[in-house]
Amino acid sequence: MKLHPNGTTGRARRRTLLGGALLAATALAVGATPVTAAQAAPAGQEATSYLNPRLPAEQRVRDLLGRMTVEEKIGQMTQAERNSVESDRSRITTLALGSLLSGGGSTPTPNTPQAWADMIDGYQKRALDTRLHIPLLYGIDSVHGDNNLVGATVFPHNIGLGATRDPDLVREAARITAAETRATGPQWVFAPCVCVARDDRWGRTYESYGEDPALVTRMETAIDGLQGDSPRDLTRPDRVLATAKHFAGDGDTAYGSSTNGGYKLDQGVTITDREHFRTVDLAPYVAAVREHGVGSIMPSYSSVDWTEDGIGNPVKMSADKELLTDVLKQKIGFDGFLISDWDAIHQLPGDYATQVRTAVNAGLDMFMEPYSADTFERTLLAEVRAGRVTTARIDDAVRRILRAKFRLGLFEHPYTDRSGAAAIGSPAHRAVARQAVAESQVLLKNDGHALPLRPSQRIYVAGTNADDIGNQAGGWTVTWQGQSGATIPGTTILQGIRQNAARTTYSADASAPTDGYDVGVVVIGETPYAEGVGDVGNGHTLEISAADRAVIDRVCGAIRTCVVLDVAGRPQIVTDELPRTDAFVMSWLPGSEGAGVSDVLFGKRPFTGKLPVSWPRSEAQEPINVGDKQYDPLFAYGFGLSTRR
């Protein structure tokens, strides 16, 4: 649905100016081109600067900001979960909401591109019903493709992309993610995660590109893929606003420092000296701002405790004015806006008014208050009226948010351009994902040239992760935690193997007879999890399961050549099992295109992947990182064997 904001006749424009809300509702009902924010403006505002797309964004921001009431400004600082307004969409208008989001698994029914676009356009219509017709910014977690949409192209998680060492490929994967996401309505994604994973026991390890800040920084081409190569690209219908997260240090927390339920590392405390923090945890954000112009940044749930003072006084990132304002905004020069994580300010000390006041004054600009938007707005308004939050701080926050909306072209094109929907999950997009899968595979052992396999071989495949696309996609796939089973369209690793070798047998638990086979392929690994739910010690371990160990023993003990693939979001402990294998491959979480795994297994593509993290000998060895004084991993950071094509 292509919008033409300047293409109406004089009569049509006058009619639009007089009855914008009615025309918008009619357009949505009959599928016609809906009115834009500028077209919906009352007749008395038709000459206002903020509605003139020919003027610089900063001039438009100044003009609009000067017309807003404090209540309208606070509305722009508020983001609600879409389910909180779904039963009464008029709340978008009455609360003057600046943003909505879909949390993990918060999808329309049916979960289709059209249903997404219809839903978001319906919300947008309500936003344009407000006095100043400020468009809504809709956010979503497109962290490895448009992963909330069934049928989207699902790429490997970031840890697999880090293994590729291919910034151009990462940029292209992000470009496809942006195009598929924007074609369904959202204009903003909470990605990429530029955390530096320093402890593989963390349940978010797979969201990191690796343990080395230099590698993470190198992979920030993802920001360019999402936003474009210049600020002008943001107005295109195949680009989205990116979010670098989670500022800063969330991959570097101390084990056992989290106070959130059973979490061990996630949302914990980064206990560090300032030099380590600067070179490891902060470095990727400097590049995200100065080299890639990222539009938004999400502060972490985690805290920082500086070791220099020797006190032990951690400060939550949402309350850290030094880091959010003095360092990020002023010293580094970030001119985008800060969005809080889900209910993050509720973890701050004090009552709710104190939490709101502290976070706003620390520098947070937009607040993800999924189910308490109205309470947040009332509370912040009271703080402003009492003089505990200045109007200057409010204006700074809203200026940053409006700047992003003007840069995205939302005032001219508030509704979904659906022209790219046909390419969602297309063969061309899936081919890029398949390439990413192939490049992400890390060959850690290959005795006797067990790999590549030959199509003529009789192959015995075992292990539950061989034929489970939900497991190979991992968390953040359709739902927050992800789930096992046939959750998305795509190709499993087993299907990919069968495309190359006709004589393939599959037995998940290796109970079928093993006689007469040339090669055994065992696919082990993890089942899906996300965030601190996946922390080791919170029901999870780096040890491979007893079932996986039994299958390895059974197959590798019976078939002469045995290849083991590990489908997981982090290294697993295979020190004892490794001698039983001829070849061992880390497959990470490949996503929807399992055929990319078979491409390297059969030599259609060479193995080129390198470890983005150090591989521990035992769980007790964590945290282990390249550069440690006592560095003795099973496989070193950067290790990876190659094969010829």
From TrEMBL:
PROSITE patterns: GLYCOSYL_HYDROL_F3, TAT
Residue ranges occupied by any Glycoside hydrolase family 3 C-terminal domain in the UniProt entry: 442-642
Recorded family membership: Belongs to the glycosyl hydrolase 3 family.
Keywords: Glycosidase, Hydrolase, Signal
Any GO MF annotation of the entry: hydrolase activity
Catalytic activity: Hydrolysis of terminal, non-reducing beta-D-glucosyl residues with release of beta-D-glucose
The keyword Hydrolase appears for this protein: yes
InterPro entries in UniProt: Cellulose_Degrad_GH3, GH, Glyco_hydro_3_AS, Glyco_hydro_3_C, Glyco_hydro_3_C_sf, Glyco_hydro_3_N, Glyco_hydro_3_N_sf, TAT_signal
EC number: 3.2.1.21
Name of the protein this chain belongs to: beta-glucosidase
Record-annotated Glycoside hydrolase family 3 N-terminal domain positions: 69-403
Top-level taxonomy: Bacteria, Bacillati, Actinomycetota, Actinomycetes, Kitasatosporales
Enzyme class per UniProt: hydrolase
First and last residue of the signal peptide: 1-37
Domain of life: Bacteria
Tagged with keyword Hydrolase: yes
Pfam families referenced in this protein's UniProt entry, alphabetically: Glyco_hydro_3, Glyco_hydro_3_C
